[in-house]
User: Fold these one by one.
Assistant:
Number 1:
Amino acid sequence: MTDQSAWSEAVARLPFGRVVHGAVTQRWPFGVFVKMDEAPEVVAIVEINNYRPHGGPVSPDELPAVGDRVEGVVVDHAEFNRQIRLRVGDPRPGR
C-alpha cells in the first residue's frame, strides 16, 4: 500500500484492540504475515513474540503454516513500513 490516504483510512478502521481474522500468507522464523479479512489491502504481521496461542512463547516451528486461519488483536500501526501488528493469544501467563 503506497497511498497515504488509503493507509490512513485503513488505520482508522483498525484501532488498537480490534479483533481481526485472516489467513497466513508468509511464514518466517521471526513471525507470519497475515491477509486480514477486514482490510486485505494492508500488510499485517504477527511477530513471534506476539504469537502466544497458549499464553507462553513459541519456537519458530510452532508458528502457523501458510494458509492457516488466525484471529488476532491489533496492537500497533507501524507507519514507517505501513504494517499492522497483531497479537495472537493472551500475553499474560496462565490465561
Number 2:
Amino acid sequence: MEAILDIPTISEAETLLPGAEEQRVEGSYDDFVAWLRQCDYPIEYENGNIVIMSIASDEHEKIVANLLGAFFIAMRGNRNLGRYGSNRHIYIPALSKAYSPDASVVKGDPEVFTYSAGKDAYTNPWLVAEVISPSSRSRDFGEKLHGYKAIPDLQYILCIEQERPFVTVFERIDDTARWRSTDYDALSQSFPIGEFSVAMSDLYENLKF
C-alpha cells in the first residue's frame, strides 16, 4: 500500500497567515482524503495537488457573512434551495477536483459524494460564490472557474471582489456549456440571481475601501 504523505501542522503551514498565497503539496487523491480526516485547516484537491488555503481576512469573512445573510433573506421560505458555507465541499467527479467555495446553494436534493466515513461533498450546486483576494485571484479566475463551469447543474458563479465593490456574475446560457458574465461596480446596484436579487450595499455593508 502506498504511504500517505505526512500532514503539516498549523505551525508548519506558513501560508495559513491571512491573505498569504495558498500552499500546494503534490499528492494523490488518497493523500487528500487522509488529510481531510485529520487536518484542522481548509484544503482543496486539484490536478494531483493538495491545496492548503490561507486563513481568511476580516474583510473576506464580513463579505461572506453578508452574502449568506442576503441569501437567507432572499430565499427564506424556499425549501427547494439549500444554502451552505465553505465547510461544505463541492466535488467534481469528471475532473477529480474538490473545492470549498465561500458559499454555495443547492437546488433540490443534494447529490452526495463520500470521500470516507463522515467526510463527504455535494456534486450538484446550483450556485457557487468566491470572494476574490489578491492572493487567490489567479486561481479563482483560472483553475477554479474552469472547474466550476464543468458542473452540469451549476447555473451561477459569483466572483466577489474583496478590495472594492465589484461583482462578476457568470450565468449559464440556457442548458448549454456557454456562459455570459455581467459586472456590477456600484453600491447602488443590485444583481439578479434567478428570481432573487442581492443589493451591493448589503453585500459590502460595514466594509471600508
Number 3:
Amino acid sequence: MQHGTAGAGTGVARRSRLGGRVSALVAIGAAAAIALAACGGSSSSSKSTSTTKKSSGAAATAAVKTASSSLGTIVVTNDGKTVYTLTNAGQQVPCSGTCLMVWPAVSVAAGAKASGTGVKNVGTTASGQVTINGAPVYTFQGDSAAGNTNGQGIMSFGGTWNVVMSGGTSGGSSGGGTGTSTPATTAKSGSGY
C-alpha cells in the first residue's frame, strides 16, 4: 500500500510543480499584456491629440447667421441676438468705453477666425471682434429676446445704429438696405444712450 501512496504523492508533487510553472507563465503573460496595453494607449491618445490640434487650428468659429425679422433677412449671433453697426454720414464710428456696456461687441476668442452661416465677408480683428464687410458689429442690451430689433435707428454714441442685413449692409429696408435706416426708424431717440 505504501507503493500506491508513494505514487500518489509523486503525482501530487508533479502537478504542484506544473501548477507553479503555469501560474508563473500566466503572471508573465498578464504583465506583458498590461505593459502592451499601456504602451498602445499612450501612443493612440497622443496621435488623437495632435490630430485634434491640427483640425481646430484651421477651423473658423461660426459667430453669426441669418434670420428672418420684420425688417427682412437680418444678421444675428448664434444665440439669435440682432447684429448692428454704428455709422455717421456713412462712416464707421468706433464704440468703446461706456458704449460697449450698452452695445456689446460681437466677438470670438482672440486669434480665432470668425465665420458666418449665410453671411458673406465675415472677418475678425486681432482682438477677436467680428466684422462684416470690414465694419465692427455689436448687439444691443435693449433686445430682450432673440430677433428683437429695438436698436434699429437709435442715435447715440456719435452715430446711428442700424441692423446688419443679410447682404452685409445696414439699414431697415429689406432687399439689402442702403446703409441708412428707414424714415420710420430714424424717429427713435437715443433715450439717454
